[in-house]
Amino acid sequence: MTHRGIVRSIAVALCAAAAIPALAQNGTITGKVEATPPKYLAETVVYVKQAPGTFAPKSEAMDQKGLAFIPHVLVITKGDTVKFLNHDNVAHNVYSPDVDPYNLGTFKQNELRTHTFTKEGAYSQLCSIHPEMLGYVFVNQNPYAAAVDAKGSFTIKDVPPGTYKLEVWNSHLKAPEKSVTVAAGKTVTESFSLKR
Ligand SMILES: [Cu+2]
């Protein structure tokens, strides 16, 4: 091997060594949420209240199909843009009266409108044409947040090690926050009981 070849091999090895611990050092927060009454369980998000760092904006999507917002609860990070789609053969009007209100107007099948969320909070997602339509966009300060599944389970992956306030948002119910410590490469389990 030439001298240049050896230098290059070392450089490649160093880069590979640096990349692996960077991925392995984050942890996971998982657990379960119970709700009383259980009918509101689907409208639950578990989130890290504040985390250091800045986060690259992402593009997410919320569909309208069968006169419903899909997903029912969309969890995003402040600065993300949501594409609102319409896969119904009727027009919809997307708006929210909450936190930092918006109204995207009325749009037809296969039309797309976007909105960038710059303020944290829970936005009820409504349609002025179909009062039965309701969804939520939950905007967190950081990406370490997840909606629960049908059984109330949640998993927040790739959380940098540290001690955080772990909070739970629900459309109607409340539970006290927890303090959670995430260790490198480990999974920590927390549970919440939501009540009125
Ligand atoms: Cu509608």
Give an overview of the whole structure.
It is a single chain. The termini are far apart. It is built from 1 helix and 16 strands. The longest helix has 22 residues, at 3-24. The strands form 4 sheets. The chain has a 5-stranded mixed β-sheet, with no helix packed on it. The radius of gyration is 21 Å and the shape is globular. It is mostly beta strands and 196 residues long. The protein folds into 2 domains: 25-53 and 146-196, Immunoglobulin-like (Sandwich), CATH 2.60.40.1120; 54-141, Cupredoxins -  blue copper proteins (Immunoglobulin-like). It has one helix at residues 3-24; strands spanning 27-35, 44-48, 59-65, 68-70, 73-77, 81-85, 92-96, 102-107, 112-116, 121-127, 134-140, 145-147, 153-159, 162-170, 178-182, 187-194. The structure holds copper (II) ion. Copper (II) ion binds at residues 92, 127, 129-130, 133.
Strand % is over 45%
CATH architecture classification of the largest domain: Sandwich
CATH fold-level label of the largest domain:
Immunoglobulin-like
Number of helices: 1
Poorly predicted parts: 14-22
Bound molecules: copper (II) ion
Largest sheet: 5 strands, mixed
| CATH 4th-level superfamily of the largest domain | Cupredoxins -  blue copper proteins
What Rg do the Cα atoms give? 21 Å
Q: Which structural class do the helices and strands define?
A: mainly beta
Query: In which range does the helix fraction lie?
Result: 10-25%
Instruction: Give the overall average pLDDT.
Output: 92
**3D shape:** globular
Order of strands, widest sheet: 5-11-10-7-8
Order of helices and strands: HEEEEEEEEEEEEEEEE
